[in-house]
Amino acid sequence: MDRPAAAAAAAAAAGCEGGGGPNPGPAGGRRPPRTAGGAAAGSRQPSVETLDSPTGSHVEWCKQLIAATISSQISGSVTSENVSRDYKVFRRPDIRALRDGNKLAQMEEAPLFPGESIKAIVKDVMYICPVMGAVSGTLTVTDFKLYFKNVERDPHFILDVPLGVISRVEKIGAQSHGDNSCGIEIVCKDMRNLRLAYKQEEQSKLGIFENLNKHAFPLSNGQALFAFSYKEKFPINGWKVYDPVSEYKRQGLPNESWKISKINSNYEFCDTYPAIIVVPTSVKDDDLSKVAAFRAKGRVPVMIHPQSPSNNYPVQPTRKQDEKYLQTIRMLSSFVDARPKQWSESAYPNAELVFLEIHNIHVMRESLRKLKEIVYPSIDEARWLSNVDGTHWLEYIRMLLAGAVRIADKIESGKTSVVVHCSDGWDRTAQLTSLAMLMLDSYYRTIKGFETLVEKEWISFGHRFALRVGHGNDNHADADRSPIFLQFIDCVWQMTRQFPSAFEFNELFLITILDHLYSCLFGTFLCNCEQQRFKDDVYTKTISLWSYINSQLDEFSNPFFVNYENHVLYPVASLSHLELWVNYYVRWNPRKRPQMPIHQNLKELLAVRAELQKRVEGLQREVATRAVSSSSERGSSPSHSATSVHTSV
């Protein structure tokens, strides 16, 4: 399948306030844009120098930034079959449009994904950039994205925002922009905001605000998420990445202590657990059912990795069957409680117990809110470090890594299993167990292994993605929302910084995962549990993110990856060794300089290295040939040994 490259990753932190950012997925056979970019990934500290605008005119700099961003954007055409029946266009007489005719109209058209349809097109919309002011252009709203384009600039200025990343849409006053008396502020989940202004008459005719609300929050409006309409074809089926039985067998299960159980095959045992679980061999299914009936939400302790069972609820053995089951677990394990030390230790009789003091989802949500305030739309250079510290974001990342290191060390050095749990078992537990497994098992540090880890620990074991992210829901103040999965990916990125050759995937891989956590283009992160995904036909009616990624592995591969099997990683969980992930959190800042992503630089360097190596090998062959020729010419004369060439590039 031909998939021409979309906007260069170097230009991902696009433009002004929200940026002329890239598209988050493949469009009409186009490759999903690369969203890495921004500050050089090679710099260790989030230096303010990489965040401010250069000396000189902000307008001129913005022009350069836009040029770097838009130069490789793909223009597409809107075919008649892609346009829905409620497709509305409001056009005012325009001298240039009348003169250039179809050429200009074609330039303004938004590229569409297979299955995507246009809902409204509005002329003379103003995008309000805090650096370069108002930019006039055409706004297209589809059932997947908001697409703004100015064709009068050279190169064109483009905003391309998936509706899934929108947290809320609010009307604002825009009287300062003349006739454009209506305004909309769009608050996004991925650290950016947008402001648009337009004429009141266009709002009344086209319902811009209503269209955005309807398609940005489809579930709140009785509609399906766009993932169920997306019709791209990929050569690889990403839904086949994870097979639980095969993965458990890879880990050496079942064995004398643990067995693979299908007691939950109909999700009647525990509706938030996967169909296949691993439990102690000494426990019968009847006893398991009795334990599940006693435990809240039925989430009994189960095996997630050899010598690493995961207990997903506070241990309070007050009934005989539950006490017997937990005693079986205790004989195999020590206990780690992810929560602050406010729970009674009497719940863990005769057991080693460690509290990790990790805060709840509400604290993490507030921390991310503070982080967004300091990175967008402007940065206080004089107080940058103190402002970052004031968010406590890196401190919470440190606590997660430190907890995972303790778990991994107990398993590796202490040769003991560890029971990990928090309040419910689908937030902090998932963070800790998946990070510990990433440290212990080199397979999970490969691309397909990491996909398996996410499918296993997060998706199948019931992390509540729909609630934590708020897919298609207009209740932006929902207390269930929290950046739990984002924190996990941030921790993984911190590990890749400390062990740059230990992971097969690159930074673009992690950013792509986060972009599609919100986009609702793929079905991978939809719903709250495995049972709900089967009920909603996610596995048959949507496409997996891994289908896209695994169809172009070179884009997401670390060229310096070295697969050290059975090598345990112990990252340094200290603030002095952690840094703010500038290429993700600050990429939309309008004053951030676009730079070549490090993975692209590395690929180019490796290409040069390969070419030089070929030249060296050619020279070595030439020297060897000359030596043989010289030796044969001398015949019986005293032999002369040729000096071999040993050159490493």
UniProtKB/TrEMBL annotation:
Skewed-composition ranges (Low complexity): 1-15, 629-641
Residues the record lists as binding substrate: N360, I361, C422, S423, D424, G425, W426, D427, R428
Active-site residues, record numbering mapped to chain: C422
Membrane topology listed for this record: Peripheral membrane protein
Keywords linked to the UniProt accession: Cytoplasm, Hydrolase, Lipid metabolism, Membrane
Domain Tyrosine specific protein phosphatases, first and last residues per copy: 391-438
Keyword field contains Cell wall biogenesis/degradation: no
Region of interest (Disordered), ranges: 1-55, 625-649
Domain Myotubularin phosphatase: residue ranges: 238-585
Molecular function in Gene Ontology: phosphatidylinositol-3,5-bisphosphate 3-phosphatase activity; phosphatidylinositol-3-phosphate phosphatase activity
Start-end of Polar residues biased regions: 44-55
Subcellular location: Cytoplasm; Endomembrane system
E.C. numbers: 3.1.3.95
Database matches in InterPro entries: GRAM, MTMR1_PH-GRAM, Myotubularin, Myotubularin-like_Pase_dom, PH-like_dom_sf, Prot-tyrosine_phosphatase-like, Tyr_Pase_AS, Tyr_Pase_cat
Top-level class of the enzyme under EC nomenclature: hydrolase
Gene Ontology BP, a term: phosphatidylinositol biosynthetic process
Gene Ontology CC annotations of this record: cytoplasm; endomembrane system; plasma membrane
Compositionally biased residues, Gly residues: 16-28
Similarity-based family: Belongs to the protein-tyrosine phosphatase family. Non-receptor class myotubularin subfamily.
Protein name per UniProt: phosphatidylinositol-3,5-bisphosphate 3-phosphatase
Organism field: Cercocebus atys (Sooty mangabey)
Species classification: Eukaryota, Metazoa, Chordata, Craniata, Vertebrata
